[in-house]
Amino acid sequence: MTKPKIGLQLWSIQDACREDFFAALQAVKEAGYDGVEFAGYYDYPAEEIAAWLDTLQLDVAASHIPYEALQPSRIKETLAFEQTIGNQRIVIPYATFDSLEKWQAFAQEIKEIAQQVQAAGLTLYYHNHAHEFTEVPDQSMIDVLCKDNDQLHLEADLYWLAFAEVDVLAWLADHQETVGLVHIKDMQAAPKESTEINSGILPIKAYVQAAKTLDLPWLIVEQEAFQAYGPLEAAAIDYLQLKDIVEEVHQ
Q1: What's the total number of domains in the chain?
Q2: Sorted alphabetically, which PANTHER family does this protein's record hold (predicted)?
Q3: CA gap 229, 218 in Å, rounded
Q4: What is the dihedral angle through the alpha carbons of 77, 79, 83, 89, rounded to the nearest 10 degrees?
Q5: CA–CA dist 100, 80 (Å, integer)
Q6: Closest CA to 38 of 4, 76, 7
Q7: The CATH number of the domain where 113 resides is what?
Q8: Which residues contact 123 (CB under 8 A, 6 or more apart)?
Q9: Which distant-in-sequence residues (6+ apart) come within 8 Å of 11 by Cβ?
């Protein structure tokens, strides 16, 4: 199986991106990452971002796109932007509703969006947090979204699965036909928040082994809380730690 590329979800270094987007991308490349997952473009045009990526030799793993940008009035513009920067994977990063009926209505809208995204040669993903497993008692809203929608794929955030007390490895096995990307981050025990890879309590090596079984093209690092290091330094540590694990698993 092909060794996956390692990308960084740029939400992890959002302040650096906001201050100097090109310099932030350059720092990601210097840390060793193969590519990035975008979380906003800070009003830069697609052509300029594409030129930066080419200059830095960074690939696009995916991009988190707000659901609002995929509505009928905006979706053509959104898809054209993504095509220009060389992105093939559009990820809806978040949704929340207070009833099963509202989730089901959202699932129908997602089905229609997925068809338009696929028609443009891209793939639509949904990224989970923990609440999709707790918002409606005893039901998984992820399964509601995926029901009768073969064109929707999942970006499984393994940290949030663990946070929701889901059996991560069993869940991945059960959803192997749908999971196309994963977020990798470690969890500090107390307070319960993300931390640098190999500094927390999650079985990251087992996650990488599961990703190998699924033959995933990317492992995407994300860190949302910082204890001893700033975001850029933490991202560099995350890359080195994950790279060593990938090398071990794929040797």
Answers
A1: 1
A2: HYDROXYPYRUVATE ISOMERASE, INOSOSE DEHYDRATASE
A3: 25
A4: 150
A5: 33
A6: 7
A7: 3.20.20.150
A8: 88, 89, 90, 117, 151, 153, 180
A9: 39, 64, 222, 224
User: Average per-residue pLDDT in the chain?
Assistant: 97
Report the predicted TM-score, pTM, of the whole model to 2 decimal places.
Answer: 0.97
Give tens-digit pLDDT for 169-227.
999 999 999 999 999 999 999 999 999 999 999 999 999 999 999 999 999 999 999 99
**What is the C-alpha separation between 128 and 133, in angstroms, rounded?**
9
Distance CA 235, CA 10 (A): 10
Give the residue-averaged pLDDT of 106-110. 97
Cis check: omega of the bond before 191, within 30 degrees of 0? yes
Segments forming the whole domain that contains residue 133: 5-249
Residue 58: what residue type?
L
Distance CA 103, CA 125 (A): 16
Tokens of 75: 């979706």
- The per-residue b/e assignment along 108-137, b for 16 or more CB within 10 angstroms, e otherwise, is eebbebbebbeeeebbbbbbbbbbbbbbbe
Residue holding tokens 């940290």? 159
Instruction: State how far Cα 138 lies from the chain centre.
Output: 25
Distance of CA 5 to the CA centre of its chain: 13
Cα(18)–Cα(7) distance, integer angstroms: 19
